[in-house]
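Q: Is it fine to ask for two folds in a single conversation?
A: Yes, each is treated on its own. Send the first.
Q: Here.
A: Result:
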Amino acid sequence: MSTTRVPFARKSVWWAIGLSVFMIAAGVLAVASHLAAGIRDNILIAWLLILSGCAHVAFGWFARKAGEFRWELILGILYSFIGAFLLYLPFAGLTVLAVLLAVYLFWESILDFIMGFELRPQPSSRWFLFDAIVTLVLAVTIWKTWTTDTSWMIGALVGVGMLFSGITRLIVSLAARSAAITAA
């Protein structure tokens, strides 16, 4: 790493760590709310998706030197679009939410697989692959059970997805911080 990139890397790493912690907190909050009323869950999850979408875009912006920007931007747009849709139609019901979340988790897993393979030479790439597998399992679980157990699974499974997404990005950010310290 060149000396001109070290201050940028240090600043970016701290932002990435903060945003990762936010994503973990959003995931824990979504898991904790799984017993709440359906519409409240719908609105809460919609806002958490929008905020997590913003966090993905910000994470991508600060990690753009690592080549992650386009994938984080796509994930951020996907999160925000689905969150905005859920806010726009809050009475659409948990069934629609379950189907949309299964679709969004499926696409998130695909993008995480791509990012994991694209970053393969880096040791932290395996965490993106792990996140992709967990997210794909969540998507399939929602898809297979959405007609029977919709009320509890929405917050719980989406929260688990956000939690793993935040943990993955925190691990990657900590690895980047370690590399920036070593380069200094």
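Q: Second one now.
A: Result:
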Amino acid sequence: MRDSGQLCTFVVSGQRFGIAATHVREVIRHEAARPVPLAPAGVTGVTNVRGEVLAVIDLAVRLGLPAGDRRLLLVFGARTHVAGLLIDHAGDVLGVGDAAPAALPAWVPPEAAGLIRAAFSLPDGPLLELDPAALVSG
């Protein structure tokens, strides 16, 4: 179930994603994460944002996309967790309330399909809505 019809959009490895605007706190410049031993795949470490320690998630690793040198961190909340998502660049806030759902693109690995809440085929290209709770639980 979508939290709102508004998605904060961003790009990772040339693919466009969105998270419900109600979950996004901010997008900031990110320099480095402190590695955490035995962290799950896709968690590059932790970082301190305004006195709060956040897990840093690399979506490209979780989805099997090409690696990159991502310097932006999208800080989002899900349930009682707050985390940061490494992104290439931030986009606009888009309303998708009337958009028709689409099938997941073929490049999304089956094991990562649970991270995606919905897919949309928009006039300017596909948009995948991420599930914030799934991002922080895996």
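Q: Anything structural to flag on that second result?
A: Two points. The helical segments are 59-63, 132-137. The radius of gyration is 14 Å.
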